[in-house]
Amino acid sequence: MAEKSTVTFIITRQDSPDSEPYEETFHVPYRQNMNVISALMEIQRNPVNANGEETSPVMWEMSCLEEVCGACSMVINGTARQSCAALVDQLEQPIRLAPMSTFPVVRDLIVDRERMFDALKQVKAWVPIDGTHDLGPGPRMPENKRQWAYELSKCMTCGVCLEACPNVNDKSDFIGPAALSQVRLFNAHPTGAMHASDRLEGLMEDGGISGCGNSQNCVQVCPKGIPLTTSIAAMNRATNLHAFRSFFGSDKTL
């Protein structure tokens, strides 16, 4: 079989947030072991489409190129994933690239993931330590808890789980599975647990855990294999207990 010399990419483009999307086809010189990012770099270097017409370079986001930052998420052949980890040799061709539809498009393959960061604010996904630096070391986390908490900490806010979730859309304010799992992570932290009730209150607000329809798509697509549905189940129990105890005047939180 003759070795292929080019790879065809069909890219959904959008010139601005308010303009209409359109498709543009590119033929990219093939190199063994190339990923989608390297193909986009080639288009950027030589922005000529399949008709031989000069065009504007395709815009996308990237940072670490090691599937750690989550910035290069896009829809590749109908599936949301990281383009740095998508090898051309393993993809059906022609390769179709599109921005994630859950988020507003900024330009081409770049989307605005602000709703994810707003969700982290809603659930207070941090450990407040301001002013406590002089109190000495904090409590240690038991090793058995540290092991599963580490798995939750792998979340890179890539947005893939939100793209797969049918309950996250422009008609819903559901914060999505990533933020729900982060509550479990920070409430497991020995210092973070001191503010566990605040995070559970955030989960009980509009758009919180009640918006989950238990489709379980999120756990299937997470590139880091985070047990999102396990976290959601744990937080569902925790919020119910918190509501029960709040009703009866107890401020303790499990």
Automatic annotation (TrEMBL):
Report the cofactors. Answer: [4Fe-4S] cluster; [3Fe-4S] cluster; [2Fe-2S] cluster
Which superkingdom heads the taxonomic lineage of this protein's source?
Bacteria
Q: Where does the record place the 4Fe-4S ferredoxin-type domain?
A: 146-174
For this UniProt entry, the molecular function terms from Gene Ontology, in alphabetical order, are: 2 iron, 2 sulfur cluster binding; 3 iron, 4 sulfur cluster binding; 4 iron, 4 sulfur cluster binding; electron transfer activity; metal ion binding; succinate dehydrogenase (quinone) activity
Alphabetized, the UniProt keywords read: 2Fe-2S, 3Fe-4S, 4Fe-4S, Iron, Iron-sulfur, Metal-binding, Oxidoreductase, Tricarboxylic acid cycle
Name a single GO biological process.
respiratory electron transport chain
The keyword Metal-binding appears for this protein: yes
Name the Enzyme Commission number(s) assigned to this protein.
1.3.5.1
Q: Which NCBIfam families match?
A: dhsB (TIGR00384), PRK08640.1 (NF006391)
The entry's family comment says: Belongs to the succinate dehydrogenase/fumarate reductase iron-sulfur protein family.
Q: What is this protein called?
A: succinate dehydrogenase
